[in-house]
């Protein structure tokens, strides 16, 4: 364990992160971590959809340290009161994408280690997907959602829609997460639904709580479907999905 400071000056304890690739089972060279500072906002009045926060920088007045949830002091927020709706705003420049190996002809994947509990994701104002399940990883092919650089200047259409992108921020990723602590049909593990944790019930965990990263891949890639190991026999069986082009709903990849 290591002690780390937060934007509010408090000390928090967190596992030491080695900046290694978040998914060792299928490691790729061309990637970049999105963990670190991001724009953050609570949406207690549920206004974000009606006001199109994915197009507007103004609501994101606070910052959070990803991938820590807002209940954790390590996030820089450290508030344990109930806030079922939270939003995140992550900025990525074209220079950063190029540095992680992305270039024309390749696909760009956006990965989330986990978001508790329901997530909706926009990239440059385009809704790229939804996911439900606070313990499972998911990803989206965001290549076709990326806006051309001219649209992302501070004087472009994005600014006229209520948001203002600094010149260095070529692309904007927005995440909306909804986590109802009182919903008994929703898997909670040992997360408490009370004001304070007690007995075996731990503090709540809302929104992003595992690594977020981008990776650039060729048009045809392999995704792991299943890896089975039998240690006593020294045997391992792997099944992979070969995916060509953007992954769309209803597509059936081949398996080997």
UniProtKB/TrEMBL annotation:
One biological process term in Gene Ontology: carbohydrate metabolic process
Protein name (database record): Glycosyl hydrolases family 2, sugar binding domain
UniProt keyword terms in alphabetical order: Hydrolase
A single GO molecular function term of this UniProt record: hydrolase activity, hydrolyzing O-glycosyl compounds
Biased composition range(s): Low complexity: 153-167
Segments for region (Disordered): 146-167, 224-256
Lineage of producing organism: Bacteria, Bacillati, Actinomycetota, Actinomycetes, Propionibacteriales
Keyword Transmembrane among record annotations: no
Segments of skewed composition (Basic and acidic residues): 225-240
Record SUPFAM superfamilies: Galactose-binding domain-like
UniProt cross-references to InterPro entries, sorted A to Z: Galactose-bd-like_sf, GH2_Domain-Containing
Gene3D superfamilies: Galactose-binding domain-like (2.60.120.260)
């Amino acid at each position: 364990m290591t002690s780390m400071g937060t934007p509010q000056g408090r000390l928090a304890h967190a596992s030491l992160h080695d900046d290694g690739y978040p998914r060792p089972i299928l490691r790729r060279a061309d990637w970049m971590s999105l963990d670190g500072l991001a724009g953050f906002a609570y949406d207690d009045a549920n206004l974000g959809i009606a006001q199109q926060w994915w197009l507007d920088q103004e609501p994101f007045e606070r910052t959070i340290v990803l991938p820590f949830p807002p209940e954790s002091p390590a996030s820089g927020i450290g508030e344990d009161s109930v806030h079922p709706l939270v939003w995140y705003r992550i900025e990525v420049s074209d220079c950063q994408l190029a540095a992680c190996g992305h270039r024309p002809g390749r696909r760009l994947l956006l990965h989330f280690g986990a978001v508790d509990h329901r997530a909706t994701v926009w990239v440059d104002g385009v809704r790229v997907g939804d996911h439900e399940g606070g313990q499972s990883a998911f990803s989206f092919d965001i290549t076709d959602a990326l806006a051309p650089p001219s649209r992302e200047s501070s004087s472009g259409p994005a600014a006229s829609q209520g948001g203002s992108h600094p010149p260095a921020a070529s692309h904007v990723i927005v995440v909306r997460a909804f986590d109802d602590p009182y919903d008994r049909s929703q898997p909670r593990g040992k997360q408490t639904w009370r004001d304070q944790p007690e007995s075996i019930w731990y503090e709540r965990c809302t929104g992003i709580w595992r690594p977020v990263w981008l990776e650039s891949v060729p048009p045809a890639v392999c995704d792991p479907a299943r890896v089975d190991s039998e240690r006593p026999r020294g045997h391992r069986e792997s099944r992979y999905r070969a995916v060509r082009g953007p992954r769309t709903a209803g597509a059936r990849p081949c398996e080997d």
